[in-house]
Amino acid sequence: MNRKISGKKVVVFGGKGFVGSHLVNLLCKNACQVDIITRSENKKLDFFLGSEPGQVSVKKIEDFSENNLDNLVKDADIVYNLIGILYETKRNNFNDVHVNIPREIASAAKKNGVRNFIHLSALNIEKSNRSLYSNSKLLGEKVVKEKFPNCVILRPSVVFGKRDSFTNFFLRMSTFSPFLPLIGTPEIKKKGLIPILNFNKKVRFQPIYVGDLVSFMINTCLLKKKIFDLSGPTIQSFDDIFDIILSVKKRKRLYLPIPFFLARILALFMEAIPNPPLTRDQVRLLEYDNISAKGFENLKQFVRNPSSLKTIAETYL
Question: What does the alpha-carbon distance between residue 130 and residue 54 come to, in Å, rounded to a whole number?
């Protein structure tokens, strides 16, 4: 237990999401009073909490007005903003979710005397400047720092664990598809009029375990004016990740190379369906490796023995 946060009132915006649910669970174990602020219509918790009666409350928010936010963060010691989207819909766009909402939450936290504000961003967003997602995340960081200068900003790599939308997506795909997609392979370059295929070029990730991420989020929540890149212990490509998933389920599948130009075409059609598995903006993100040696060093400073996907996969897949 972290005695420094024991008994504190913590407000978690986006607390019903994947990362949020794990964070709330750990906050409960640290004897915090937790308010979950959600945009979801369903206020019922669909994850287990080992909490005392009344330790956790769930509040729905529709309007991020100054008055509403003042009421939600009043008397809070710590505020987390975990609200984010991976693709735009008619209801949600990147600018509103990643810029306007964080700005208003940070402003309310500062106005109401909240001591610590933690904002969840993403790794290497400064590199993929053609991505609307990345640009909105970067701008979100900027406005949060303007409104709450002492904030802590966390930039994790791909996060895996129970209820994630990354490894579980490919797990579900492997139940019905004989193929799994190696997006970005091969790399296609032209030498004159002749295309050159490089099958050694692969999209690389440095996945971070959600349990390690939320431990880091709690162990650093009382710091001020910090920005942390965060990544796990192992650099892996799509095929490395598929190998682990299939090994856990004792399945065999063929890996289908899909170069970026073809991935963009497929994503264009996928965008027409609800909850698209791939968008053109996500393809732009994949053009840059999601890795950071500094990110792993940061993680090790505050989390003992960070876990790799290989060591954790059997516990939740």
Answer: 45
Per-residue tens of pLDDT for the chain, all 317 residues: 687 899 999 999 999 999 999 999 999 999 999 999 998 766 566 665 666 767 999 999 989 999 999 999 999 999 999 999 999 998 899 999 999 999 999 999 999 999 999 999 999 999 998 999 999 999 999 999 999 999 999 999 999 999 999 999 999 999 999 999 999 999 888 777 788 888 888 999 999 999 999 999 999 999 999 999 999 999 999 999 999 999 999 999 999 999 999 999 999 999 999 899 999 999 999 999 999 999 999 999 999 999 999 999 999 99
Cβ atoms of 114 and 45 within 8 Å: the answer is: no
Helix axes 101-111, 66-73, angle to 10 degrees: 60
Q: Which residue has the tokens 């130009």?
A: 261
31 φ/ψ angles, rounded to the nearest 5 degrees:
60, 35
Structure-block tokens of residue 196? 């050159």
Topology, domain 9-159+206-233+291-307:
Rossmann fold (3.40.50)
Residues contacting 167, CB < 8 A, separation 6+: 160, 241, 245, 309, 313, 317
pTM over 0.85: yes
Domain extents in the chain = 9-159+206-233+291-307, 167-203+237-286
